[in-house]
Write a structure and sequence with these properties.
3 strands; three-stranded antiparallel β-sheet; mainly alpha
Length: 120
Amino acid sequence: MAYDPTASGGSNLGPTSQKLHDTIAQNLASYRAQNGLITNVVVPADAVTASASGLDPHISLRNAELQTPRVAKARGLSADRVRALIRANTDAPSLGFLGEPGVNVLCLNLALDALSPSVK
């Protein structure tokens, strides 16, 4: 599959946009359903919104943790093994203090693929 740069990019939707509100609500419901979460579980913002470019390879540590049971089941791995891979592929804040730690999803997926290459 060839890279399609038109699939990336931000939107011009602002905080008062009903379309943005509806999209986030739909993403939230979908994320909860996919990950078997009850409605009162706090879902991190990065799980239901997009980065400005849509190309950021990182997700929050909490986002990765909430997906752990689903990923473990899909990959045929224990949740503890997936958590260890998440920790191994978490980058520290920039300069050690700017921002939050982030899970590099590309590196994590490559590590998961190395353990379970037959899963598509």
